[in-house]
Write a structure and sequence with these properties.
about 0% strand, mainly alpha, about 120 residues
Length: about 120
């Protein structure tokens, strides 16, 4: 098993990406290459995987920071999609909760790695 596949955080992020793809499939066709593509391009899970493959804790923490930034980007884009009526209120709240949970998991892992690096 690859290092990132052992992380609960990475598995949760993959589930989140799958959920994002499912809801963005329902966006209006004219938005498929705009907002939908932006939300899908966010690299939360990919940055976690990339960081876990690095040889130093410092590099891993850097990629977790990138992942945290991507999660914040998705959070903002989901709010925009919700306000534009592309997401139901229910879907928005589920996804917003998920991205908040993932953000907290990233923070906890980063703090743990920082303590190990000291």
């Amino acid at each position: 098993m690859r290092p990132h596949q052992q992380l609960d955080l990475w598995r949760r992020a993959i589930d989140f990406v799958v959920a994002i793809y499912r809801v963005t499939d329902r966006f209006p066709n004219e938005k498929k290459f705009g907002l939908s593509a932006q939300v899908r391009r966010a690299s939360v899970a990919a940055n976690i995987a990339d960081g876990a493959a690095r040889t130093s804790l410092k590099e891993f923490m850097l990629f977790l920071s990138h992942s945290q930034g991507s999660a914040s980007e998705v959070d903002a884009e989901l709010l925009i999609a919700s306000r534009l009526g592309y997401l139901s209120e229910k879907d928005y709240h589920i996804l917003a909760r998920d991205v908040d949970d993932i953000g907290r998991m990233i923070t906890r892992l980063s703090q743990s790695l920082k303590r190990r690096a000291i």
